[in-house]
Design goal:
This protein has 186 residues and is mainly α. Helix content is 78%, strand content 0%. The protein has one domain. α2 runs parallel beside α4. This is Rod shape-determining protein MreD.
Length: 186
C-alpha cells in the first residue's frame, strides 16, 4: 500500500532532480569549455528519459540559460539579428527534442546505444534543417558550410557520449529511476 503512492509521488521529484543535474552539468561544462551548449545532445538525453513535453521543456531550459549567459556574461548585442538567431536556436532545440522522441518511441527493446545513435541522427538533422530556415529568415540567405556543420555535430556527439556515460553511472550508483532508457510508469 505505501509503495504505490510513494512511487507515484516521488517520480516527479526524481525527474526534477535528474533534470536539474543535467542542466547543471551542461552549464558547468559549457562554461568550463567556453563552448556553446550542446542542445542536440541534451535533446536526445531528455527525450530518452522524460515524456516529450517535459523533454522539450528541459531542452528549452538549457537553451534559455545559454541565452542568459550570452546576453548577460558575453554581452551579445541586443539587435534584430541576434534576437532572431536566439529564438531560432530555441526552435531548433525544440525540433531536435521532438525528432529524438519520435525516433525513440519507434525503437522499443533495442539496445540503448542503437536508440541513442538513431535519435541523435534524427535530432541533428531536425536541428540543422531548422537552423538553415532560421538563417534564411534572419540573414536573407542560406549557406551550407560543411566544416561548421560537422564541428557542431562532433561537439554534440561528444557531449552525448559523456552525458550518457554520466547518466548510466548515476543510475547505477545512485539508484535513480530516471535516465536515458529507464522504464517509465504507464
Amino acid at each position: 500500500m505505501g509503495e504505490g503512492p510513494m512511487r507515484a509521488e516521488s517520480l516527479p521529484l526524481r525527474e526534477a532532480a535528474w533534470s536539474a543535474g543535467l542542466l547543471g552539468a551542461v552549464i558547468v561544462g559549457s562554461l568550463a569549455l567556453s563552448c556553446l551548449e550542446p542542445l542536440v545532445a541534451v535533446a536526445v538525453l531528455a527525450a530518452g528519459a522524460l515524456p516529450p513535453a517535459r523533454a522539450v521543456g528541459l531542452t528549452l531550459a538549457v537553451w534559455l540559460v545559454g541565452q542568459a549567459v550570452g546576453f548577460g556574461l558575453h554581452d551579445f548585442p541586443v539587435d534584430r539579428t541576434t534576437i532572431g538567431w536566439g529564438i531560432g536556436l530555441g526552435l531548433a532545440a525544440a525540433a531536435s527534442t521532438l525528432a529524438a522522441a519520435a525516433t525513440l518511441v519507434r525503437l522499443p527493446g533495442r539496445p540503448s546505444w542503437f536508440r541513442a545513435g538513431l535519435a541523435f541522427v534524427a535530432a541533428f538533422v531536425a536541428n540543422q534543417l531548422v537552423v538553415l530556415g532560421v538563417q534564411q529568415v534572419v540573414e536573407g540567405a542560406c549557406e551550407i558550410v560543411p566544416g561548421v556543420i560537422s564541428r557542431i555535430g562532433l561537439l554534440n556527439a561528444a557531449w552525448l557520449a559523456v552525458l550518457l556515460a554520466a547518466d548510466a553511472l548515476a543510475r547505477r550508483f545512485l539508484g535513480s529511476g530516471t535516465g536515458f532508457g529507464a522504464p517509465r510508469p504507464a
